[in-house]
Amino acid sequence: MRIYSDPHTDETVVALRGEIDHGCEETLETSLTSALSCADRGIAIDLSKVSFWACSSVNVLLAVRQLALQHGKTVSLLATSPIAHRVLELTDTLRLFTTGTGAVPRVPHLSA
């Protein structure tokens, strides 16, 4: 996980990579909540390097989104890997994390 500020948008970006499964949900929620509390406007999450996304991890995103709304902040997605994109589509939660400019960019699937 990498957390940094985007100088172009003044958003705090949280870039996730690897496998996001049930075993790392507590760490994920703690990290996202911490990043959100330090952010002025909200956080943008980059899921483009996620190779596995457990359905149960969607609950973490929803909890952090709810917290953001309570504090007048936002949680958006910068990009999603094909795996993360599909899980968010199947759970009908992708639409909750789109920006005002439209759909969440999806990283194309690369095949060998």
Mean pLDDT: 85
What proportion of the residues is helical, as a percent range?
A: 25-40%
Classification by helices and strands: alpha/beta
* Strand adjacency order, main sheet: 1-2-3-4
The tally of strands reads 4
- In CATH terms, what is the architecture? 2-Layer Sandwich
Radius of gyration: 13 Å
Overall geometry comes to: globular
Count of folded domains? 1
Separate helix tally: 3
- Let me know the largest β-sheet: 4 strands, mixed
> How far apart are the first and last residues' alpha carbons, in Å?
26 Å
One letter per element, helices H and strands E, the order comes to: EEHEHEH
- Output the CATH topology: Transcription Regulator spoIIAA
Strand composition percent: 25-35%
Which regions contain 5 or more consecutive residues with pLDDT less than 50?
A: 108-112
CATH homolog superfamily: STAS domain
Helix and strand arrangement:
Layout: E1 2-6, E2 11-20, H1 25-38, E3 42-53, H2 55-70, E4 74-80, H3 82-90
Organism: Streptomyces siderophoricus
Domain STAS: 1-112
Family: Belongs to the anti-sigma-factor antagonist family.
In short:
With 112 residues, the chain is α/β, with parallel strands linked by helices.
Descriptive tags:
112 residues; alpha/beta; 4-stranded mixed sheet; 30% strand; globular; Anti-sigma factor antagonist
Q: What does it look like?
A:
Mean pLDDT is 85; it is low at 108-112. A four-stranded mixed β-sheet has the order 1-2-3-4, with helices on one face. It has helices at 25-38, 55-70, 82-90, and strands at 2-6, 11-20, 42-53, 74-80. It is of the alpha/beta class and 112 residues long. It contains three helices and four strands. Helix content is 35%, strand content 30%. It has a single domain, classed as 2-Layer Sandwich (Transcription Regulator spoIIAA), CATH 3.30.750.24. Residues 1-112 form the STAS domain.
